[in-house]
Structure formats: C-alpha cells, structure tokens
Amino acid sequence: MNSPEKRNFLKLIQYISFTSILIFFILVLYFQNYLSKTYHTLELQHLYGYATCLPDQCFCEKIYLNQIAQPINSLTNIFFLYTGIWILFQLKSWDIFSIVYSYILIFLGIGSFFYHATMTFLGMWFDVFFMYAYILFLILFLFYKSNLITKTQGILLYILLLAISGIFLLESPIYRRFLFGFYVLLTILLFFKIKQFKNIKTKYFYISLILFIVSYGIWLLDFYHIFCYPESLIQGHGIWHTINSVVVYTLYLFFKENF
C-alpha cells in the first residue's frame, strides 16, 4: 500500500470512527425511548441473562426499570469514544498501533454503555471483554517492544489470550475483576522491568498510574456504597469512567513518546 493509498485509507478510518459517536447516541435514544416501550428492563435481563452484580452490587446508581438502567454510568462512557476518536483525528500518517488502540477504546465505551444501560449478563460480558482487550494489547505490545516476542507471535498470543479470557469471563464471571487486576499488575511490573534496561520517559506513565489509583479509590467508595446517592447526577462509577478516559489517553502519550 503506497503513501497516497495509506492517507486515503486513514481518512476513511477517521470518518468511519466519527460515526461511532452517532451510533452511541442512536443507542442512547433506542434504549431510552423505543426499547423502553417494547421491553421492560427485567424482560431484557431475562432475554440476555442477569448481570452477576444483581440485585445489590451494581454500584451505587439506582437501576431504573423502564429506561436506561443506569443513566449516568451509561452516558459517561462517551468519554472513551471521544478519546478514541480524538487520537484518530490527530494522526498525520499511517500508525497501526494508534488505530487499533483507538478502536479498542471506542468498543470499550460502547460495551460499557450496553452493560449499564441493560444490567444484563451479555452487556457485562462485552464491557469486561473489551477491558481485557485493552490491557492485553498493552501487555503484548510491551513484550514486543522489549524484543521478547515477534510481531507475529504477539498477534497470535493476543488472539489466544483474548479468547481464553473471554471463555473465562463466560464460565467464571465472579472472578472477572481478579483477572483484570492481574493484567493491570502485570502491566505495571513490565513497565518497571523495561525501565531497568531501557532509557524511557516516564512522566505520562506515572500520571496515568496516579490517576488510575485515584479513580480506583472512587470506584471502591461507589461500589461499597460508602459515598452513595443513588439518584444523584454525580455518580462515583461515572467519575471512574471519566478519569479513566484521561488515563487511557496519557498512557497512549507514554507509548507514543517511547515506542
């Protein structure tokens, strides 16, 4: 593929990705209006399975039965879409890492929206699956850039580990957060290992880590209903989404600055 073709294809990707915002709002309208007139939330859960957090561990926000189940926790996922699209529209040349990274963020936002909008098992699966897709992409990219695996090995391992994680999520959903936590710890350990033998700029990684720790603290306060106002416009889990949309962008800057 020559340079003009790459530039044209890049523009196509940018325009297609921009439509994901439109898709997001169509989903909002669909769940908020048409779907609420056709299905009761309990009917959706019967159709697509009940989220394992039910009945009382689905974060602080009240679960509504005839509209978007958790409006704030659903709508704050738009920031992941904005971040993914912002990265794509900054591209000046072909960059497969940035393109894949951006699309994972876009699908992460849509998956998380589906989860909080329906409180179904299927929605939960898509939400966590794309969390796995994101963190595994970072882990294997770090392995690749450390010359521990080849590009082909990285792609094959990514597909294999993603498939295993998806099956694990299906069979043992109660342990889904432990697996994600393990992947996060592995990413941090890899960072410190690479820092020992490679001269890298660390500012954006530390910013990401600090923001993530803060957002996780807010997540815990919300999850355990320590700071909880179920019908408020300010929801801890929504703040978790918002802060982490910044985290994924600063992590992106770290990778682009060093690799």
Short description:
Helix content is 76%, strand content 0%.
What tags apply to this protein structure?
259 residues; mainly alpha; 10 helices; 76% helix; globular
Describe the structure.
- The chain is an all-alpha fold.
- The chain has helices at residues 3-38, 41-48, 71-75, 78-90, 96-118, 121-145, 151-171, 176-197, 203-223, 236-258.
- Helix 1 runs antiparallel to helix 4 (78-90) and helix 6 packs parallel to helix 8.
- The model has no long low-confidence stretch (mean pLDDT 90).
What sort of overall outline do the alpha carbons produce when their principal axes are compared? globular
Q: What's the total count of β strands?
A: 0
Regions with pLDDT < 50 over 5+ consecutive residues?
none
Task: Name the beta content range.
Answer: under 5%
Question: What topology emerges from the helices and strands here?
Answer:
Blueprint (H helix, E strand, L loop, with lengths): L2 H36 L2 H8 L22 H5 L2 H13 L5 H23 L2 H25 L5 H21 L4 H22 L5 H21 L12 H23 L1
Helix pairs in contact: 1-4, 1-5, 4-5, 4-10, 5-6, 6-7, 6-8, 9-10
